Amino acid sequence: MSHINKKKEWQDYAKVWGYFQSPWVPSSERIRIYGKLIKKYSKGREALLLGATPAIRDLLAKLKFRVTVVDISPLMIKAMSSLRKMKSREKVIIANWLTIRLNKKFDLIIGDTVINNLHPKEYVRFFRRIRNFLQDDGVFINQSVVLTKHVNKIKITIDKIIGKLKKDPKYYENYLNSAYDYLEWSCGHAKNHLIDWSTLEREYQKRLEKSEISPAEFRLLSSGFKTLRISFYPEKKLEKIMSKYWRIIEKRHEKNHQVHRDFYRIYVLKKR
Ligand SMILES: C[S@@+](CC[C@H](N)C(=O)[O-])C[C@H]1O[C@@H](n2cnc3c(N)ncnc32)[C@H](O)[C@@H]1O
Question: Using one digit for the tens of pLDDT, what is the confidence trace for 83-97?
């Protein structure tokens, strides 16, 4: 039995996910990194995509992969398909990554912010199952939210964020700065590696209702998240969990903003 009903959570995002920006969806830099890693490591042309991320589907089509997409939400698959810039034939399977059975092995498995959708108790089961779908010389490109700071060093508060906003609204005109604070606050308020990602969004809404911030200021901070349970681990702990089943052969992150350095990793994994 699944610990979180992801089909239900994600159905609320189908109409709006197209408006979400990096880091929640892949930036063009992240897609370039994926392209380089795929060219460097993938030995064949059969790919399994976890989730329905349109930019990854376009990339795989450009690289001439035969693609199988696995996503639990028919609404997300439909919405994400409409955001694709290219057309290509794909096999689309509506299923849970934790329970899916596939009688095929792939040269490449790839997913953008996949494990963060799982309950921490589901990680081992996920890594064990996904391993079965990879060729022995295949690679799993697993991008995820990680925490590189020690949680005790996280000092950000909502009052501090609002103070910064009042002093220098231009700072938050770069959305990645808002996202940085969003990630830091949310990671700092997780319990047992899990948090409802809409928690801070709801706090911002309360401040708006109390007229502590204006609608324009709210828009600078707002992420648009609704209920979505997100899990994450400190970087080293995640690497330890993965290492039972996988060898990390390369680790990358985007360079264009500190948010990627402190909260995101792209792992290239091979089977142990
Ligand atoms: C891959 S994640 C993160 C989004 C990614 N950053 C993007 O922009 O596409 C989102 C997708 O995963 C799907 N999903 C979440 N949990 C799932 C599960 N256990 N099995 C299959 N699909 C799942 C959701 O339906 C959603 O379409």
Answer: 999 999 999 999 999
- Tokens coding 106: 């792939």
Query: Residue 58 to residues 83, 95, 144, 166: CA-CA distances in angstroms?
Result: 10, 21, 20, 40
Residues 176 and 217 occupy one common structural domain? yes
Residue 1 lies in a domain: no
Is residue 64 domain-shared with residue 191, that is, in the same domain? no
Read off the pLDDT of residues 140-152 as tens digits, 9 standing for 90 and up: 999 999 999 887 7
**What is the value of pTM for the model shown?**
0.97
Convert the pLDDT of each residue in 121-134 to its tens digit. 999 999 999 999 99
String of DSSP letters for 2-27: -SS-HHHHHHTTTTTGGG--TTTS--
> Parallel, antiparallel, or unpaired: how do β-strands 194-196 and 229-231 relate?
antiparallel
Identify whether residues 124 and 209 lie together within a single domain: no
Does 51 share its domain with 174? Answer: no
Q: Residues with Cβ < 8 Å from 104, sequence gap 6 or more?
A: 46, 68, 133
- The residue whose CA has the least distance to atom 26 of ligand 1 is 51
Ligand 1 within 6 A of 6 CB?
yes
Mutate which of 7, 8, 10 to test ligand 1's pocket (most atoms within 8 Å of Cβ)?
A: 10
Q: The domain containing residue 77 runs over which residues?
A: 6-148+232-271
Is the backbone of residue 248 left (phi > 0), alpha (psi -120 to 50) or beta? Answer: beta
Could you tell me the mean pLDDT of each successive run of 10 residues in the chain, 272 residues long?
Answer: 82 94 97 98 97 98 98 97 97 97 97 98 96 97 94 91 97 97 96 97 98 98 97 97 97 97 97 96
Does residue 126's CB lie within 6 angstroms of at least one atom of ligand 1? no
